[in-house]
Amino acid sequence: MRVPLSWLREYVDVPASVTPEDVLEALVRVGFEEEDIHRFELQGPIVVGEVLEFVEEPQSNGKTIRWCQVQVAPDGETAADGGPAVHGVVCGARNFFAGDKVVVTLPGAVLPGPFPIAARKTYGHVSDGMIASAKELGLGDEHNGILRLVELGIDAPVGTDAIALLGLDDVAVEINVTPDRGYALSMRGVAREYSHATGAAFRDPGDREWGDLQHPAGGFAVTVDDANPIRGRVGASEFAVRIVRDVDPTKPTPAWMVARLTLAGIRSLGILIDITNYVMLELGQPIHGYDLDKLQGGITVRRATPGEKLETLDGKVRVLDAEDLLITDESGPIGLAGVMGGGTTEMTDATRNVLIEAAIFDTVSIARTARRHKLPSEASRRFERGVDPLIPFVAARRVADLMVEYAGGTLDTEVGGALFATVEIAGIDLPRGFVEGLIGVDYTTEEIVAALELIGCEVYDTGEHWSVHPPSWRPDLTDKWTLAEEVARIEGYDRIPSILPTPPSGRGLTLAQQGRRRVSNALAAAGYIETPTFPFTTEAANDLHATVSGEHVPSVKLANPLDGQSPFLRRTLVPGLIDVAHRNLSRGFTDLALFQTGSVFLPEPGVTYGTDFVPPLAVRPDAATLAALDDSIPPQHRHVAVLLAGNVSAKQPGHPAVPVELGDALDAVRTIASAAGVAVEVAQTQRAALHPGRAGVLTVEGREVGYVGELLPAVADAADLQGRVVVAELDLDLILRLAGERVVAASLSSYPAATQDVSLVVAADLPAATVGSALRDGAGELLESLRLVDDYRGTGLPDGTKSLTFALRFRAPDRTLTAAEASEAKLAGVAVAAERFGAHIRD
Asked: Residue 819 is part of which domain span?
């Protein structure tokens, strides 16, 4: 919210000596965030001048300029720049006449840009200044010609300081207004908060006698037809109407109003629209004006019919939803209630009679409509936060009065609208001692009551507690906790002691969280970079990377994806890592070691996910509602994945570059397994995106937990990745469950190890991991480690076989093993391998 200080001073006593920084400091003390300070970035001398005469001079480039004589100071006096009273100025605009009062920027002035003004030779003349347009002064985007003061209704003496005359010496402070404090999206609300912070006297612009707002005669027909309110909430609870006739929409908006609107971040669009915007900023009540002569019959507020269409003021035709709240007449929809009006009844330069609308609409309905149609507006921003239900009739009359004063209209005696729901503000019980106990400050009874009354509450003492009735403009005050927060805010956050709370025992990270953190820390320590990615992908990427060759599992498609090119939820992390690798490679990073932990979405075959059910937003969902929502989403598993590309070791003098290979991905798998506390086994497999013969399935205790492998060259080339690219992906949740609650460290023996090798001849298609598992099972507890050291296929072996050589290490915890004991254990393992696979020791 941008707050012009000249405007703020109308409603609260802000001393002239107070700086914008002082105002921001005061507002920060009552809970607002400081954003910025806005000024008209110009400096004088900029004065009122009178065009005495001009000569039109056609140029060789086809353009015609005017050589003007402009009086910028009274006769006999020196101009503000120290020059003569009459200056010669070259001007390209042609929308002014001799005798017009204009704004002249004299040499030495600086316009927004910054654009310094100096005397310069142009078109054969020395132009001693510039006649300015509204855009050049920062008063708007219009640049159709220079600014004529007669069009603003201004007749000031020649030489008058135009900066002060046009309100360009004003300054605005900008604060961030949180969603629960919508009342501060108005000058009324900010002035009240400044009063709370400083004790300055506050004058409420919304304080008017009810009798001033109504008239006994007539009544414009307004109806609310909401027989089936959404979530039990009626769409409109209040609708105030005033009519102003015989307006002149071509009349100029006063310069002070244009300056204030500009500083507040709103363009000037003509006197009628400017007034509605001005009152919205002043009181916080969105206003909409209709061309009364374009309306057909009375106004009806109703829900849309599915598929119904409306052309809004931005020129777009919008297909409406059954939840959308509409403003309609006999012709059909004429506006999206609380969001944007329709084009058929908008006010134009031909408007002569205006119908003014000030209403209260359901906050949730307006918020959902604005988001559904991607149509945020200043009106919806206020309605979705809550508007004071006692202000619409005040705002409607305020707009009408300004239109009478500045647009030359006449206030009609016909008044429409009504309260469709009684404004009831329920009391809140505030127990004695609750505020002190929650905030941790020993407030006195007088301080608590004074703070609540200061913000507009009515406080009644009932003995053991207070009954507090919040003001109408504070819908966020709903319980004793919010009241306590207000006391802390008003009394000052600096009174709250800084005490570090003592956490109760037994709290902290869960075992699963600790396990995930160990895995991430281990990979980071090993040199991998964590790269979180979006969980959205294509179905083709899911089928390529998440399944074995030839398999197809349907993916979950989002009904409203962020990116229409990637509307499916991922079933694997690898496509995201490939995208990250591609992006980094395009930026010159060729050696990559990436990892990610994140959720994948694994739908069950034949199950449809999603729901049209929207739970009530005003209450906490019960267990059954939460269970139904859980059933509407697919199972989610947390995975961990790694990707390596380029070199693991860069080229150096005497040391060639070492490119990545499958063994590096296996090292990453072992790092993950070690951190998780499990032993992972690898067996050969096939997957759609991986190189045949360079892909492995990962198992823990016989259960598949993931895969490792080298990307097919075609898959890597599609992502512009050169050389070998290896990946691995594991189900992190599963391996942590298999690890159990505690990771038990293996005991260390002080006795020496006995090492032996064994070469077994087996079928060529038999995985080495399977043979190793048989050796391990047969060798028993004395076997400390087993490692494959050779895979030979060729001369000396029967066709269709291979020789696998394993290095075995044996150790006993209580004695030194003899060679006979080690050999016996080795042969026991060979016997199991022979029994299972027909393996025999190579001659």
From this structure: 754-841
